[in-house]
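(Structure overview)
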Amino acid sequence: MKNMKKAFITGRPGIGKSTVLREVVNILKNKGWKIGGIICPEVRRNGIRIGFNIIDILSNTSGILASINLYNGPRIGRYYVNINDIERIAIPAIKKSLEEADLTVIDEIGPMELLSKKFYNLIIEILSIDKSILCVIHKSLVKEFSLKFPNIPIFEITEENRSFIANKILNYLLR
């Protein structure tokens, strides 16, 4: 039986939060862990970021989280957020992962994702249950989530620690 632990990963945009998460996930997979949840990679065209996808790690189902090309829905910056795909892909992916996986990853909990009240409510609910969860959390939400969940450690990625912080996260999850 694996320990049920939760942790947040944060840091400024572009510092390598998703890269560190992938490193942790790959090592745990090599140790035999089943990983589920969601990732939201950038979509680039001609080197320019035009949006973000949502991918269910277990099923590889994907959709659009946000895009400059949607032209409807709520807007954050230059991106239109696709609440339908958040609720159609992310919510079922997280629920299925909680049932089937050793670790549920959420990359990320950010302002775009939280435009869905259903997603927000699910996140608040699952962070209170006895399951292993590793979340990338947007820097602007750290204070709110650390107040709501003071027992969940926050690993902040910096220029100085990004080469070794994955090992610290692994040590925490595996002890």
